[in-house]
Design a protein that fits this description.
The protein is α+β, with helices and mostly antiparallel strands. The protein has one domain: 3-Layer(aba) Sandwich (Beta-lactamase). The strands form 4 sheets. The protein has a 7-stranded antiparallel sheet with strand order 1-3-2-14-13-12-11. Helix 2 packs parallel to helix 6. The longest helix is centred in the last third of the chain and has 16 residues. It is globular, with a radius of gyration of 19 Å. The mean pLDDT is 95.
């Protein structure tokens, strides 16, 4: 079996065993963390940071978690809501006047968080993703594809700029700066939205699925979403230096399972962790308020959207392109994170859910 590093409570042995099996099956490298009541009961990693399996995955290895980043961006917005600085029912134009045109006057803040704003597609060149003013100016000019709030369509790239610009207008700092100052810093979490050059040596670049090369692009898990002609990000884009340096708050966060689970444990513990309070219990509960239930026009499958998080039974969370995943179960005060740089085809990828179920097996042993 593949060698697994780190530590874990014996009750949760199924988690590192599952990770070892995935590495034996051909995955390059990954990390998994399970936090219960704010404490790590699993913090493990294994494999390699490169496709040739020559450089071992280390404790401080980080990688692009893609859309798991959305949970961090949404947490920032919920913090401002909880402080009374952001009103979910206010028009976005109240904070961002230039946005209120081209049919977007009725787009509310909650629509941005729930993927119901009608602005799901990035219609510009990939290079514009790296320039915040260009990206937000492009979104200002877009017209909603449906009545805001009336349908949902996954805003895979656009959501981060939409929410992030509102955060910037309120705080006078970028989303990445706000996250570093108000979340990662106080929690001592090794997660970054906009990665500095000094951390490049720790990055495990994304590896496309078997049989694919770096021109591989994202597709919907269900494979039935319409092809809109919108720009698609390739693996090679995400592996570029420009991507790492940019703040793309829907998709360019860098971390490992430990840092993802640590941050999102705040949502599992009523807003406080290790003496640091980021949210009130009521502020955490906002994430579980269902905003939409039904077929997502971009994902091509049924979804339930809360405020910034996907809803799964009593849990909240979201996954990233290539397999990374975070799920928070506030009822059990648990956060589970899986971070990998080894992609598999979406239709064949159940790794995150397998690890989540393994975590629940261990949780049963903890509870009286």
């Amino acid at each position: 079996m593949a060698d697994i590093q780190g530590s874990y409570d014996d009750l949760f042995i199924a988690v590192p065993q599952a990770l070892s099996t995935m590495l034996d099956e051909g995955d390059a490298g990954a990390s998994v963390a399970v936090f219960v009541d704010g404490e790590p009961v699993v913090d493990v990693w294994g494999g390699f940071t490169d496709a040739d399996h020559t450089h071992p995955w280390q404790r401080d290895t980080i990688t692009n978690v893609w859309s798991v980043t959305k949970t961090m961006t949404s947490l920032c917005a919920l913090i401002l809501v909880d402080r009374g600085e952001l009103d979910l029912d206010a028009p976005v134009g109240h904070y961002w006047p230039g946005f209120a045109r081209a049919g977007k006057e009725k787009v509310l803040v909650r629509h941005l968080l729930a993927h119901t704003a009608g602005l799901p597609d990035w219609d510009g060149p990939i290079e514009d993703l790296y320039d915040w003013p260009s990206a937000t100016a492009r979104l200002e000019a877009q017209t909603p594809q449906w009545e805001p709030g009336g349908a949902a369509g996954y805003h895979s790239l656009t959501q981060g700029f939409l929410v992030g610009e509102v955060v910037r207008r309120i705080t006078d700092v970028s989303l990445g700066e706000f996250f570093a100052r108000e979340v990662a810093g106080p929690l001592d979490a090794d997660f970054h939205i906009g990665l500095s050059a000094e951390d490049d040596h720790r990055v495990a670049l994304t590896i496309p699925p078997t049989g694919q090369d770096e021109d591989y692009t994202a597709s919907a898990p269900g494979g039935t979403a319409p092809d809109t002609g919108a720009a698609r990000v390739r693996v090679r884009d995400g592996n570029g230096v420009a991507w790492r340096r940019a703040e793309i708050p829907a998709a360019s966060g860098y971390g490992n399972a430990r840092s993802v689970a640590l941050v999102q444990s705040v949502m599992a513990r009523g807003g406080a962790l290790g003496g640091t309070r980021l949210l009130s219990p009521a502020g955490c509960e906002l994430a579980r308020q269902e905003q939409f239930r039904g077929e997502d026009r971009r994902l091509g499958m049924p979804v339930r959207w809360g405020l910034g998080y996907g809803l799964f039974d009593t849990g909240i969370g979201w996954g990233g392109w290539g397999g990374s995943l975070v799920v928070v179960d506030p009822d059990h005060r648990m956060a589970v994170a899986y971070v990998t740089h080894q992609m598999r085809e979406p239709a064949n990828d159940q790794r995150g859910m397998e690890l989540l179920m393994s975590a629940y097996d261990g949780l049963q042993g903890l509870e009286p």
